[in-house]
């Protein structure tokens, strides 16, 4: 009899605790939906994309002939496949001649949902961004747009591909169409995560620890900058609100505008796939995700996060890793 009573008590406590946790999870899902959105199905501008344009853009994305010495492609700094998160995991990237750039390479995955491109926001969309590295002397090193068009125009397969992709344009092969085709391909690089399942109501998508990290993320107001479907990528904000960032040589958007008010203003990074796209920060100086979380808490929010909070937030951020990557599995 006593054993039966004990078992009944254990069963009751288990069911009670399970019910309490389910209620907590329900409330967290509702709270999260105030600040975040599941990843949309299509990126802005994709309504004009065609299979021919996407295929052309893919071919161009991987073609090293877009560089001055046929050694560098878009994929050199933004590799895809083999578990790569759309960037090369280097602090800064080498260009066609081996020279290093001075800013960390952002991921190209999901990039089309951002309000601007580059750390300083100087490109308004994916096509505008695609135009620039090809002509950058450190990156791909081509001297001008005309040289790029002439080089591609000597390749019969590109004459055919541009004509198929842009049949109504005269001429079909232009630098503008090249950039738009690359953008069309990049608009297919959608990377959905377990967090999207959670936002849509799947209570089992995140572990208890990951949910705790999400709750801390919201409670400490990380959502002031990192919100929406991309958890960032829509604002240009000062890096170092309460304390200076440890590297103030790069003044961010000030490089573009020359305006003193733009010193240390950088685009807020999207946190999609952040766990696999280190090293972090615009200069690649963030060595671990935990260090980055501590730094951002200190200089942006004026708080010193506890170590368990740092670990929980890092666990939550890992749930933003695309399902196509192995380390996106739930932590139990």
UniProtKB/TrEMBL annotation:
Signal peptide: 1-22
Keyword annotations: Heme, Iron, Metal-binding, Oxidoreductase, Periplasm, Peroxidase, Signal
Needed cofactors: heme
Keyword Signal attached: yes
Subcellular location: Periplasm
Annotated EC: 1.11.1.5
GO MF assignments: cytochrome-c peroxidase activity; electron transfer activity; heme binding; metal ion binding
Free-text description of this protein's post-translational modifications in UniProt: Binds 2 heme groups per subunit.
One term under GO cellular component: periplasmic space
Residues covered by the Cytochrome c domain: 52-321
Residues engaged in binding heme c 2: 222, 225-226, 296
InterPro entries hit by this protein: Cyt_c-like_dom, Cyt_c-like_dom_sf, Cytochrome_c_Peroxidase/MauG, Di-haem_cyt_c_peroxidsae, MauG/Cytc_peroxidase
Record carries keyword Nucleotide-binding: no
EC main group: oxidoreductase
Cofactor note: Binds 2 heme groups.
Chain residues that bind heme c 1: 74, 77-78
Taxonomy, superkingdom: Bacteria
Name listed for the protein in its UniProt record: Cytochrome c551 peroxidase
């Amino acid at each position: 009899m006593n054993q039966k009573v004990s078992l009944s008590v254990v069963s009751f406590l288990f069911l009670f605790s399970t019910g309490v946790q389910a209620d907590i999870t329900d409330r967290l899902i509702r709270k999260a939906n105030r600040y975040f959105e599941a990843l949309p199905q299509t990126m802005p501008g994709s309504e004009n994309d065609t299979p021919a344009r996407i295929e052309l853009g893919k071919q161009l994305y991987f073609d090293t002939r877009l560089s001055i010495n046929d050694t560098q492609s878009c994929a050199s700094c933004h590799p895809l496949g083999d578990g790569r998160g759309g960037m090369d995991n280097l602090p800064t990237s080498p260009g066609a001649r081996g020279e290093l750039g001075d800013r960390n390479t952002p991921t190209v995955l999901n990039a089309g949902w951002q309000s601007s491109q580059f750390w300083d926001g100087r490109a308004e969309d994916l096509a505008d961004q695609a135009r620039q590295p090809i002509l950058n002397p450190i990156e791909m090193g081509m001297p001008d747009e005309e040289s790029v068009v002439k080089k591609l125009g000597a390749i019969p397969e590109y004459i055919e591909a541009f004509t198929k992709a842009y049949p109504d344009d005269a001429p079909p092969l232009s630098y503008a169409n090249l950039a738009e085709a690359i953008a069309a391909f990049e608009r297919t690089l959608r990377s959905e995560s377990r967090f999207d399942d959670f936002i849509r109501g799947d209570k089992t998508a995140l572990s208890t620890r990951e949910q705790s990290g999400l709750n801390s993320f919201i409670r400490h107001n990380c959502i002031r900058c990192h919100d929406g479907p991309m958890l960032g990528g829509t604002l240009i904000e000062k890096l170092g609100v309460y304390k200076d960032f440890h590297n103030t040589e790069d003044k961010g958007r000030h490089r573009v505008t020359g305006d003193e008010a733009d010193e240390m203003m950088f685009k807020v990074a999207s946190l999609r796939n952040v766990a696999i796209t280190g090293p972090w920060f615009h200069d690649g100086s963030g060595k671990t995700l935990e260090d980055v979380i501590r730094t951002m808490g200190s200089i942006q929010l004026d708080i010193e996060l506890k170590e368990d909070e740092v670990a929980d937030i890092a666990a939550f951020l890992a749930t933003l890793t695309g399902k196509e990557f192995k380390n996106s599995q739930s932590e139990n």
